[in-house]
Design brief:
4 copies of one chain form a homotetramer. With 218 residues, the first copy, chain A, is mostly helical. The first copy, chain A, contains 10 helices and no strands. Chain A binds a DNA duplex (21 and 21 nucleotides) through α3.
Chain lengths: 218, 218, 218, 218
Amino acid sequence: MGAAKGKRVPRAVREQQMMDAAVRTFARRGYRSASMDEIAELVGVSKPLVYLYLNSKEDLFGAVVRRESAALVAAVTAAVEKGAAADRQLWSGLTGFFAHTAEHPDGWAVLHQQARSQGEPFAAEVAAMRAEIVRFVTDLIAAAAKEAGCAGELADREVAGLAHALVGAAESLADWVNVSVADGISPPGAAREAATTLMNFAWSGLGPRMHGERWTPA
Amino acid sequence: MGAAKGKRVPRAVREQQMMDAAVRTFARRGYRSASMDEIAELVGVSKPLVYLYLNSKEDLFGAVVRRESAALVAAVTAAVEKGAAADRQLWSGLTGFFAHTAEHPDGWAVLHQQARSQGEPFAAEVAAMRAEIVRFVTDLIAAAAKEAGCAGELADREVAGLAHALVGAAESLADWVNVSVADGISPPGAAREAATTLMNFAWSGLGPRMHGERWTPA
Amino acid sequence: MGAAKGKRVPRAVREQQMMDAAVRTFARRGYRSASMDEIAELVGVSKPLVYLYLNSKEDLFGAVVRRESAALVAAVTAAVEKGAAADRQLWSGLTGFFAHTAEHPDGWAVLHQQARSQGEPFAAEVAAMRAEIVRFVTDLIAAAAKEAGCAGELADREVAGLAHALVGAAESLADWVNVSVADGISPPGAAREAATTLMNFAWSGLGPRMHGERWTPA
Amino acid sequence: MGAAKGKRVPRAVREQQMMDAAVRTFARRGYRSASMDEIAELVGVSKPLVYLYLNSKEDLFGAVVRRESAALVAAVTAAVEKGAAADRQLWSGLTGFFAHTAEHPDGWAVLHQQARSQGEPFAAEVAAMRAEIVRFVTDLIAAAAKEAGCAGELADREVAGLAHALVGAAESLADWVNVSVADGISPPGAAREAATTLMNFAWSGLGPRMHGERWTPA
DNA sequence: AATGAATGAGAATTCATTCAT
DNA sequence: AATGAATGAATTCTCATTCAT
């Protein structure tokens, strides 16, 4: 892969190529095992150029983490149908999430598996991004509770717990979908299917679900 | 530090000491960054002895992963109230899971964060263990469906998806609980609380929950 | 920083700017640690321009050494009161030496500390310059001896030794004065003071000095 | 050269071998240009062993500087005839200095040329050692002045200046002797000759010397 | 049961230097 | 007169691993 070997590419473009290669390499090898040599070779460029543009392995990883974080948040944000009912907003956001992770499995692996298992600079960065999403979900749950006229039934801590559970469930499903799909089935359908399954689980609950009740996007 | 520096310790004991040190080191540094030097020093023995007993870093990590996997599965299995209703079994298993991860944060970190982000030998091992748990949950859900007289309502794939979602939610909650508790609240109570929160989420669903419905262990 | 960033500067001027930056950088970092990047940045031009004008790091250092050598020799030569008595000539030359090294500490550091500790091309260059000064001093001592009617008392080798001692004493005093003065006392006065101290030491000797004898410029 | 290639040498011995090789290499190449590879090869050992024992290039250089500093101070101290007259003490100390620098030219080069031109950690260390010697000389001059009944004639600052001049003269002569002798003439005689020349210069002064006066050790 | 001595193989990082414009 | 893009060649340092006792 790695960019047609044409020489003299402008810096901004090269930097993106380098980050692309880095995402791929970090996802496959892990932060420590990935070598700057491999990344440079993947871009079709010498190592010093990578250092000239991105300073160090640590900086490169940081830049990658930030870029992928921002992309994920942007994808989810863009997918949410603002103004809709809380459950509908949740469902659309989840659809965006599953679609994005399916389309960018390496970016997702860097965020979810590599960055979190590295020490403080990176784990914290991803944790912050995740906290942002958890907060979004928390707000939606609280909003839904208010809409439903539920007063005080749900303690703040329980809402937070539910949000964490929901986000964790989504992450787990994303992995499962990506693994079981590999790269065959159409992502759009799969993303909506996964989001619906999750809403059925989270919104309706397993108990009611067993009596044939089901949550639907409509 | 760690083990008392008395010499001439029997092999079986030394091996456990080494694995203890390895769990701690791998959890804190990650597989690649952890050094055999640090592990040996933590045990208070020389590196060659670690190699004599555990062969290689890879083997040591594998042994650690297997030991921690087995311990986790054993803890969950032991906690399940066999013969009880499906939801009660689920709840008791989750309680065991939360209690174990809270008591063994390093072991849980090795399994959940480190082993999964390493290449094939280890990721597969953890995946197998996880699959075992997912299958257990899947069976419980299916059993509950049968109990409820739900026929064909739940496709196999959907059940599998729900199980994955539930397991992911549990993992996420485990991290959240361990972080937010640090080492303050009593773990037993925290584990039951987390399990209950998760059952409320998973079994009753967010929708019903908002109208005051709540799942209880009793 | 450094030179105003105006473009299109004539070559001769740019070359001096580059050598100025080089003197400063070599003095502070040493030959090996100084980087062409830093020098170029200090001038406010790109590295290729430095190479275009000065060929290589080695050439640049050589040019700097030669320029600073010549400047030092010129300063001393200009300060010597030709035709005066030998001791008076020596004193005036020393005054010029101390004044120059105080005014050009970076140039002096490059000559005295950096160039001498580098390999053959540069150490030899500085040694040649130093030899020139030693010869000048040697001649002065020989002349003084002749004036004093001292015949054969002083072997050539001893005169050479005395000259080397005197030059070394001057170098040492130059460092001491520059350090202890930092940038406080007026350099002109300091230079004359140092020269007088040294003449007292070298010409009168410590023994006589202790009985109140003292050498004076007049 | 470098130690018979026999394997399994005790650590303490190896460390000395490494420092010997380092002195030689640093003296010839300079701190920056010397490579750990070359040092290791000179010892007949692999690079990792050098790092295992001496930590880093910086630490190795520091260890070398401290060892050579201590050796020089010890040599001078041992050579001083305690209790003798001030000039005699000075002469004997100088003899020790010239003998030591002649016997350990690489050590002297590391101290005088390399360490001083490196940045703060090392330059300061050598400066401290040198200051110790300057103080010793200062005290001798002051003592001589007191012996001579010279009261207040010599200001403290002038004494300090004279001491600096004397030390610088000695350093310069050491270089000159080592260069002009290379490794031919008997060092003991050369050291005494250099010391005597310097005492003639410093103690009697050039002026008196020209009238046939001469300082003698006796 | 245990260790001091030693290394092969790599990894990140830096730097003087050139090419094409 | 001047520069953005690019690299070959080191160099420091680390680590899993073994040997001889």
